[in-house]
Write a structure and sequence with these properties.
Shape: globular
Radius of gyration: 20 Å
Strand order of the largest sheet: 3-9-8-5-6
Largest sheet: 5 strands, mixed
CATH class: Mainly Beta
CATH superfamily: Cupredoxins -  blue copper proteins
Distance between the termini: 59 Å
Number of helices: 2
CATH architecture: Sandwich
Bound molecules: copper (II) ion
Number of strands: 9
Strand content: over 45%
Length: 119
């Protein structure tokens, strides 16, 4: 084996060691935490202003479907914003590092989807 190919083999080993079991663990079943299904259809959002109570640092997963191109915006600091295209399904995960009330809205429709109450 030449020096160069040995180096490459060692590099591949390192890469596969990093990307090995970790992602499998994280995606084993659905993560604990809050799940919110959001549907944007015919100019309306479902839910439409519901309060979702979560804990600080709790993992929140939103599953969004939309019949329009839209931007979903979570008004926290730092904020979260997700682009969705018409007909697309989007799953996004985030958490809040501070207590408070944060709105998630559809920017295209200018509508409140949910209000997260974080405590
Ligand atoms: Cu916004």
């Amino acid at each position: 084996m030449s020096k160069a190919s040995f180096g490459l083999a060692a590099l591949l080993l390192v890469v596969s060691a990093c990307s090995g079991p970790k992602p499998a663990d994280e995606h084993a079943g659905h993560p604990a935490g809050a799940m919110v299904d959001v549907k944007i259809e015919s100019g309306k959002t479902v839910p439409s202003g519901a309060v979702v109570k979560v804990s600080k640092d709790e993992q929140i997963t939103v599953n969004i479907t939309s019949d329009i191109d839209d931007e979903i915006h979570v008004h926290s600091t730092p904020d979260h914003s997700f682009q969705i295209s018409a007909g697309q399904k989007l799953e996004e995960t985030f958490s809040f590092g501070a207590t408070g009330t944060y709105e998630m809205e559809s920017h295209r429709l200018k509508k409140l989807i949910v209000k997260f109450e974080v405590r």
